[in-house]
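Bumping with the actual sequence this time:
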Amino acid sequence: MANDLLDGDVVFLGPSKWELSHRKAQIAHSVAEAEALQARAAISFKANIIVDPYLVQVTMGAEGEPIPVHYRERMRTLGPTTRLDLGKQAEA
């Protein structure tokens, strides 16, 4: 999880690019995979594409989608909480 440096959107590292949907996030199933994700994120950070990248602990939902364990990250997957007509929660 990180923020897009140009527009501030919360983004998730997918298999080939940064994604707006957490459902497209690449999941690490081992320490080695987590380190590889962090290395890819570091490249984007150094290239001024994203800011504040970090790994998020997830569980897998019924449809195979990653669901953040912690409240903060769950809220970040939805968008602004003061305007439910904006952000990712408006698209649902």
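The tokens above came from a reply further down the thread. The chain has a mean pLDDT of 90.
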